[in-house]
Amino acid sequence: MKSRVALLALGLVCGSAARAIDLPPPYLAHQAVSGTIRIWGHGAYDRKRDFIGALVRAWERDFRRYQPGVRFENHLVGTAAAIGSLYTGRGDLALMGREIWPPEIRAFREVFGYPPTGVDVVTGSLDVRNRDYALVVFVHRGNPIRGLTLGQLRAIFGVQHGPQARAIRTWGDLGLRGVWRERPIHLYGLALSRGFARFFEQKVFDGSRLWRPSLREFRDLKGSRGGASDGGQRMLDAMAHDPEAIGYAGLLYHNAEVRPVALAAHRGGAFLYPTRETVMSHAYPLTRLVAIYLNKPPHRAVAPKLREFLRFVLSRQGQREVVRYGHGYLPVLAPCAARQLQKLRAAAPERAQRRPSRGESPDGRATSSNEPR
């Protein structure tokens, strides 16, 4: 009975959200297309739990109402197979269940000489397990710190190198005074083998994998399906007994003795807490995204059938299906959708040859400044 009530409430929330939020414009076909689109990647073997598969099938079903000449072949066997399908020629679109990893970019580049193109199609959840939830930095509730930049997080959690490097080891290094001035910072985090740590490395460390060895890792207990046995909850429960602790997890975990900290992408930027609004707008710095990757040679537009399908996915109809089937995932709003659709166009040759600028990842995505305050 409780589960039915929860589902009803979710449906009411989703229906309201679809009307209130700034979804992209409706899909209008630019041209009639036909052929087969092969999609590989993120999915689950258990069809009852395959929420991403249900979303993909909804996209395909609705898209074919506008483009009946298109057929689909789905191989949603897991993210590990996604990028490989592109450089082996087995797939047309690679749906990722996490951020792309540098070895995957290098493997693709070895074959084609350029990186794959990533298009963000779904926003990760605010606080739902297994839905790419946004990462949140926590401290003890007695800690007076109010905001941190990503650069400061790098100096706290990472190993610093170079003449300009400045490690942060005490709370006084962050500007706290009085009894906090000499207090050491105790590091807590999720297991480094998890995708959460990889995302933290990409977003905060600029791709470096050098964590301070004093980090205390918390893994999910064997068989954990949420709650007290999850690494995130175990971490917050441990932090409740350590006033000098700082750690990262997600808002789905709670302890009254621990609180979130506002984050800014760079020095001088706005300090934001993770909320549904800041995550859905991608303003919160540690928002996670679900992307579809494809093989787009420089200076060339995307193949028409792929371009039309991605235009549909990033349309009002496509993002309404995210609201309906996402079960915690959030839609991509109109401003972000417009930026993503720009990637499908052919770039001017002189611009396509430029090297990634400071603040860009190898696949052309914007990253955050990591300059400590």
Could you list some keywords that capture this structure?
single chain, 373 residues, D-Maltodextrin-Binding Protein, domain 2, 2 domains, five-stranded mixed β-sheet, 12 helices, 12 strands, 31% helix, disordered C terminus
Question: Can you lay out the helices and strands and say which pair or pack?
Answer:
Elements: H1 2-20, E1 35-41, H2 51-66, E2 70-75, H3 82-87, E3 93-95, H4 102-112, E4 117-123, E5 136-140, E6 147-149, H5 150-157, E7 186-190, H6 195-204, E8 216-218, H7 231-239, E9 245-249, E10 258-260, E11 262-264, H8 276-280, E12 289-294, H9 304-313, H10 316-325, H11 334-342, H12 349-352
Parallel strand pairs: 1-2, 1-3, 6-11, 7-8, 7-9
Antiparallel strand pairs: 3-12, 4-12, 5-9, 5-10
Mind explaining what this structure looks like?
This protein is of the alpha/beta class and 373 residues long. The chain has 2 domains: 2-123 and 290-352, D-Maltodextrin-Binding Protein, domain 2 (3-Layer(aba) Sandwich); 136-280, D-Maltodextrin-Binding Protein, domain 2 (3-Layer(aba) Sandwich), CATH 3.40.190.10. 31% of the residues lie in helices and 15% in strands. α2 (51-66) links the parallel β1 (35-41) and β2. The longest helix has 19 residues, at 2-20.
